[in-house]
Amino acid sequence: MDAHDRNLTVQLTPAELFAAGNYQAVAESGATDQWQTHAALGLMGCGAGAAAAALDHFDCEEARFYSAVASWIDGDDTSAERGLADVSLPHARNLLHLLRRPQIDVLAQLWETRAGFWGLCDGISKDSRFRLRRVPTVPHADVHDLCDEAFSPDFYICAQSEWHLIPPNIQELKCPIFAQTGDPDMHVQIVQPWLRLFDEVITTSYDEWDDASKLSGVPASTFPKLFSIPVPQPHLNPFVPRTYDVTMTGAWCHPYQPEKARILQQVYRLPETQLMVFDGYLAPAHYTGLLAATKVVICFSRYTGCLPSRGLEALSMGCVPLIPNDNVWSFFVGETEGVFRYDPHGDDLPGVIARVLANWDDLQPYVRRGSDLVRREFCRTQVASQYMRYLTFLAAKPRPQAKRVPDAAPEQKRLVFWRGGFPGGAAVKNTLLKRFQDKWQAQGAPVSARGFIDMGRELTLVAAELDEQACLGESRGNAPELVAKVLRLYEIGLKMFPKSLVLRFNLVRVACHLGEPRQVTNALAVGLDTLAVPETDWQMDPMDDVFPYDFFSQCFNYRDYFDLVTLGLKNGDNVEPKLVQLILAALHNYLGQYEPEVGLFERAVELDPAFPLFKLNLATALLNRGNYDDLVKARSLLTELAEETWLFRQAYALLVYFWPDEVATAPDLKKVHLVAQRAQNSVSETPLHHPFDSWDSMHLRPREQKRQKAKSNGKIDARVVPQ
Fold first, then answer.
1. What is the SS3 string spanning 376-416?
2. pTM for the full model?
3. Average pLDDT over residues 208-229
4. Which of 104, 186, 656, 711 has the smallest CB count inside 10 Å?
5. SS3 call for 297
6. Is pLDDT at 716 greater than 50 in this prediction?
């Protein structure tokens, strides 16, 4: 399923796209005789000085205004103020007023890191036009505590908003409030209500823009220069040999990004290349050293148009980055700077890599030019200054006085289980959980299943974290008590809301992954009862939380589920029937893990044919049953998995075990064999690998040796958390 359609802007003219804030699309589709084309380039920080000069040739007030704006973004304050003074547009008057202030005050939530590409604070401090005050990482911060007589912000920005705890009363700030987002779909059930609070949302590319604008319902715009090169960067020594032809790091074998498996397969089919693939992430110093020994780095993201931070790091260290077609970085660099493009949906990647490697020596002057360019144009000081100046332009935009108030207040939640950052660490997690518990105690019985779902979610993530520590040899702490509390909570919820499919699903998952044998047995009984009910009878709200995408993602197709939720929220499509099918598919798979019946796995594949793990489980069940037809079907499934999915190593291992004489010789398996051999010699797990992040184990708890019928728990006071 591809939630990000490249044809989303073709129906709009460049002028309409410009008014809508999709500056990348304007720069791509606009003509040089349209002022909007040059204005878009200037607003994106792409040759802003040249854009300002080009706009001076147009005889209209809008062109003069954006020429001044481009000068401002380029750091030419004198030309900006002089140009704005000659323009009567309200936006120009507002911007000139801000520029004439001694300093522009910025209230910001920033993810600060000196080693990574997201560090902005140091860079902002280098531009004397701005004074920064950061929002502390505390749950339910009060914006009134962040302002005083000495500091009244001119605007507020939450960078990487999908990873922050935004103050609930953010709309009470008496200034424009902005959010930047890069992954609104990944945490869509949590993030979408928060995005609706802002005056404008900023993204790096056309496809992020489409999701953010439609999910939030507020204006959105594209500003790509949000990532920077850490300073200082190691010296680029041209005499150090490049040991590896292609290096790939990151989540290359993960169900949330199945597209990467196809790219990985193409790379493995390249003959006689030196590959280094890390399935995971490296510490910054290790990663930088690896780049210094690498020729080619492949960049990919679910949003193929977004600025590739990996490409910035790679080019700065003298590698050739390969970026997807239609990527916003193409406005800054191209082949003359050592950056090449490929079709992420096609088969041209091996040819592009071969071309780069064959011409490596001749490309060195271009790569050095590109390295110098990104170290200059994307250095921390430059990026931070241009970002703040772009936000100043947005802050001056005339807007309605009253902010739009959403229908319901968003809820602060823990965003992920482990894959991704969480500002503030354990102390913030504990405070957040306590606030959830206090709210639960105060509000009485929930009026919908979501109250039980949300409370159970927060308790479960704490219990899962304790289980994670146990896997690393530490104490499991009070995890059993927390799991019992969660399951009791869900049982109460099901008495009140028996048709809530998400509530049932979450109960089964918590018990199977974290519960004691008796709890697993009772949960499986709930699962069996659920499968006996017609699909159309279930109550399904797309915003009912199904846990973060990294909560035992081996057993549930989070990617398609969240893509569907995003699609429904964007376009108003009726996605509930498909969401029901994805959950029921996972339930069939869970039950099949305990009762390995072929029929359960077959039904899981019928309901969710796109999720590779269900096919692997079906193939395993067929092999265990062992009929001739079963073996034929299993071989076909395993070949498909080995050729196309992130489970290629697991599928290949089964092919070798059951067909050892055919793997290297049979026409349909020979290609699989060659890919697997390359993978075996090049793939490494990183030291940061997570104990639960293994596709060879489902991390399922055992049930009771003898199945027992679940018993009723009697009457419970639903106003209190079960003790």
1. HHCEHHHHHHHHHHHHHHHHCCCCCCCCCCCCCCCCCCCCC
2. 0.91
3. 92
4. 711
5. strand
6. no
